[in-house]
């Protein structure tokens, strides 16, 4: 019986997340979700189960509505790093979920690093 694409994605996502939990206890998680039209990023405190900061291409103040490209992803990465600084967070670990680390996902991570967030 063949696994569906969604099941394979979920397995990959949980494999990545479980490996990261073992290594990065205590730091917030920078979680990325990429859809066909948008990209969103959250800084999550897994100990308390709270979202500390978030950014997305859907936000009006970023002016990226409808843009689905690497430049928009980089803008979201810069925005999450600035919001993390305001929240007093200097380092986090990057949770790519089930997505491959290239293209838009990589652009988010690189932009967050350049803006001062230690990943």
TrEMBL record:
GO cellular component, one term: cytosolic large ribosomal subunit
Coiled coil: none
Xref: SUPFAM superfamilies: Translational machinery components
Keywords linked to the UniProt accession: Ribonucleoprotein, Ribosomal protein, RNA-binding, rRNA-binding
InterPro entries associated with the record: Ribosomal_L18, Ribosomal_uL18_bac-type, Ribosomal_uL18_bac/plant/anim
GO terms of biological process kind: translation
Molecular function GO terms recorded: 5S rRNA binding; structural constituent of ribosome
Higher taxonomy: Bacteria, Pseudomonadati, Pseudomonadota, Alphaproteobacteria, Rhodobacterales
Family: Belongs to the universal ribosomal protein uL18 family.
Keyword Nucleus set for record: no
Oligomer status and interactors: Part of the 50S ribosomal subunit; part of the 5S rRNA/L5/L18/L25 subcomplex. Contacts the 5S and 23S rRNAs.
Source domain of life: Bacteria
Cited function: This is one of the proteins that bind and probably mediate the attachment of the 5S RNA into the large ribosomal subunit, where it forms part of the central protuberance.
Keyword Glycoprotein listed: no
Record organism: Roseovarius lutimaris
Protein name according to UniProt: Large ribosomal subunit protein uL18
CDD domains: Ribosomal_L18_L5e
């Amino acid at each position: 019986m063949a696994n569906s694409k969604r099941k394979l994605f979920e397995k990959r996502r949980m494999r990545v997340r479980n490996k990261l939990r073992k290594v990065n206890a205590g730091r917030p998680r920078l979680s990325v979700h990429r859809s066909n039209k948008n990209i969103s990023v959250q800084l999550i405190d897994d100990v308390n189960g709270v979202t500390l900061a978030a950014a997305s291409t859907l936000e009006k103040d970023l002016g990226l509505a409808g843009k689905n490209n690497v430049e928009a992803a980089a803008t979201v990465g810069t925005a999450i790093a600035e919001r993390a600084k305001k929240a007093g967070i200097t380092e986090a670990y990057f949770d790519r979920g089930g997505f491959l680390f290239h293209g838009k996902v990589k652009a988010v991570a690189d932009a967050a690093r350049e803006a001062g967030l230690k990943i």
